[in-house]
Amino acid sequence: MKNLIKVKDHPHLYRDEDTGAIVNCDDIAYDRYMNRVKRKNSEKEELNNMKKDIEEIKNLLKDFLSK
How do residues 49-60 score in pLDDT, each as one tens digit? Predict the structure, then answer.
């Protein structure tokens, strides 16, 4: 594991000695973030499916009205 040093007054933050990067080791916050990302992606997929359905309905109506 890399050499990590705790950041003062921040219980979940560590500094990587090699790169100087700040690393957040808060697993609960990460899990919440990932759940938000998954929910957002699911909502986008649902919206795209609804758009496809609407487009299909429009095409069926156009076809019906042209006959």
Answer: 999 999 999 999
